[in-house]
Structure formats: structure tokens, C-alpha cells
Amino acid sequence: MKRELPAHIAAALGGNRADSAGQAWAGRDLSGPDNPLHAFDDDDGAADAGLTIALESLRVPTDQPGPGERAVFGALTTARVFIPIVAEVSAHARTDAGLQADKEADMSLVTLSAPDGRKALPVFSSTPALQRWHPEARPVAVYAARAALAAASESAELLVLDPGAALTFVLRRPAVWALAQQLAWTPSYEDAGLAELIGATAQTLPDVVSVGVRPAAGVVTRTADGSVAGGGGPGPELRLDLRLRAGLTPDAVRHTVSSLRAKLLALPDVVERVDSLDIKLLR
Predict the structure, then answer these.
(1) In the predicted model, what is the mean pLDDT of residues 185-213?
(2) Is the pLDDT of residue 92 over 50?
(3) What are 153-196's pLDDT values in tens digits?
(4) Closest by alpha carbon to 19, among 34, 40, 4?
(5) Domains and CATH numbers, the chain
(6) Distance of CA 153 to CAs 8, 67, 120, 121, 209, Å?
(7) Per DSSP, what are the bridge partners of residue 88?
(8) Is 249 exposed, middle or buried (0-12, 13-18, 19+ CB in 10 A)?
(9) Which InterPro entries is this protein grouped with (predicted)?
(10) 262 Cα distance to chain centroid
(11) I need a surface site. Which of 103, 164, 245, 251 has the fewest CB within 10 A?
């Protein structure tokens, strides 16, 4: 079955197959101002300045990733990014010599598989970054919010910004959904209302003494040179520090943790606002 591109991506492709002289863009340098392979006038393919500043701020060591992650999200609400499109053979033909030849090719979005198996959509801050990653991919310029819509249409829960670059930033599912809907986003580990809901839910279990929330270890990531970046990791996103009543048997501990996880996953607000959850037992 032929996979259709999202309508807004197909529209962006439709009018940009060749330049005004009829020369195809394929095989040409797409990074300069003379080759605007997209519908953004006067766009030279460089990274958005605000997005670059927000990403660079993550390089400052911190134990509070919220401001940095919110800054990148805020920059993405107005930034132009590039989605890679590649040719995918959809039909073959036989030559007179009996050899198989490509007859038709469709343009399709590139998707990735995250370490946890979820689908991710790669996007790029600039055409040079995209071409370093996949020289044959065609860059289509869109606002990041439209890229988030494309991710949703592909059932991709993550946006991966600049894979293969010195700093790669993963926008996790709640942020992707917020960006697609052009809504504000608060990281789950900074969400006071969410913390209150989790605390109230935990207190319905008789063996729970206390529960606290904080950023999980998967919020931070590492740059290409191995240094820690304060945000943009693929998850886990939210850590619950859970303290249980003393003297419980191992089976009772497992039952309480399993019950808490099940109760939380039954709450729509938790499912929508938390990308991934890590529960740690405190002694």
C-alpha cells in the first residue's frame, strides 16, 4: 500500500521540484542562499538563531534541566526546521535483458526507532546538519509545529532534533503534542499540579509513606564529545522517589509498586503529561 505524505509536507514538496530554469534540485548544494529547496523566502538554510542559543544553553552544567528544556521548546514554537524526505521505490519493471529496474519512486518521511522501540521523527535545525546526516535526503522547510503534526501523522512520539550532530535534542511525547497543538508545555518534573495528583494517588495505598517527584536520569543527555547536556534526553523523564512502610515482604513491595504504577497509568492527566516514568524505592 502506498504511504501518503502528510498534506502540508506534500504541499511543500509540490512546488519545489526544480528551479525557475527547470533544473532539478537533486545532486545540488542545498546549503546556500541560491538553492532554497523550500517555500521560505530568503532562507539560507542556516539554523534559527534563537534555537541555537537555547541549545547552547544546555551545555552549562545544571541539576535543574527545566529552564533549558523549556527554552528549547519555546524556541521551537517559532523556529523553522527541516524534515528529511527520501525517495522510496514503489514499483519495479523488467528490462528486455530480464533485469529489474526501478519504475516509480514515492517521496517518504524518514523515521527512526528510539532505544525503547518508539518511532521518532528526525528534524534538523539547518540544511548542512541534515546533509551531514543523510546526503541524499531532500530537506523540506516547515515550522517546527508542522513537523510535530507530521510526527503525529506518522505515529511518532518523539522529535529528534539534529541526530548525529554535536548536540542532539529529543523532544519527548508530551512536548511534541503541545508543540503540534501550539500549546504551552511544562516538563512533568516541574508540574506542581501533576505532583499533587501523583501524591494523592499514592496515598490511597496503605503501605505508602511518601512520594516525591524529580527529573529522571534520562532527561539529561551527552554531547558528541561526552560532556553532559542539561536536557534533551530520550527519557525516562519523571522519577518518583517512593518510601514504603518498614517491614514489608518483597512480595508486598512489588505489589504496592505495581499497584501504584497501574493507578497512575489509569489517569488521563498522567498519561498525557508524563512521557516515561521511573520509580525508585527509598529506605
Answers:
(1) 97
(2) no
(3) 889 999 999 999 999 999 999 999 999 999 999 999 999 999 99
(4) 34
(5) 7-181 (3.40.1350.90), 188-282 (3.30.70.1350)
(6) 11, 29, 12, 10, 42
(7) 106
(8) exposed
(9) SseB_N (IPR009839)
(10) 26
(11) 251
